[in-house]
Amino acid sequence: xxxxxxxxxxxxxxxxxxxxxxxxxxxxHGRTVVIKYGGHAMTDEALRVAFAQDLVFLRxxxxxxxxxxxxxxxxxxxxxxxxxxxxxxxxxxxxxxxxMEVVRMVMSGKVNKDLVALxxxxxxxxxxxxxxxxxxxxxxxxxxxxxxxxVDIGMVGEIVAxxxxxxxxxxxxxxxxxxxSVAAGADGxxxxxxxxxxxxxxxxSLGAAKLVVLxxxxxxxxxxxxxxxxxxxxxxxxxxxxxxxxxxGMIPKMEACLTAVRGGVPRAHVLDGRLSHAxxxxxxxxxxxxxxxxKDTR
Length: 298
Fold this sequence. Notes:
By secondary structure, the chain is an alpha/beta fold. It has helices spanning 2-28, 45-60, 72-82, 97-119, 165-172, 195-206, 236-242, 251-262, 278-284, and strands spanning 32-37, 64-69, 88-89, 92-93, 126-130, 137-146, 149-162, 176-180, 182-185, 190-193, 210-215, 233-235, 267-272, 291-294.
């Protein structure tokens, strides 16, 4: 009898979860969600599998997920194996032409294809492409700033234009685009671009309903490190005021959220990618997780 009651309680709990998701399913049906995939979620096998499951769930639920990914840890490992030295200036990898060959190979040929394969265990959904393909991203050379002076950091670029045509075609065909953050320049050079920045630019150009940025912290902390309180929600203007005081690791992620919202995306979120199924918890539950950046209220 006890087992029967427990089974009924479990079934009721499952039904409650599904009912909680109902208004969010209706709200986001047919809408595009851009997800920046990075951090621990890319290197932990269980989290990688859970992330792929989340994407397929979104697709079956009627949403249109798009993934933009980086690959910093994987690039560093391959450079070490090849004996190619790498340094960082102002938090950016100094990317020589030799290093850029490795970046391109790892991002588009290894990380991208591994994620595509994980997703496609569940059906013929994912299509991998580079930001170079169909000029999805166009970049210009970027310089680091050290003590107020520009410093050459090699083949590192910043997004100057986005063409979402190929992504839209894939979405219309029911696919899940998986895009590596490598971009071509008008000068014919290939550049390594920040995946947070690339995801924000693509979200804005697609008219996405959400930008989701996976990271390795619970969200944006208030008064870090003195406070352990995560800010659950703030406006674009409030975030703009906070940006100068943020830690170096959080600045590109929060700048991406700000860029997306200023570019017309209604909401941008920073989530803890160390939490299994973080994407589903954010999109389909009333409480949500992480930090949400929304438009300014009038």
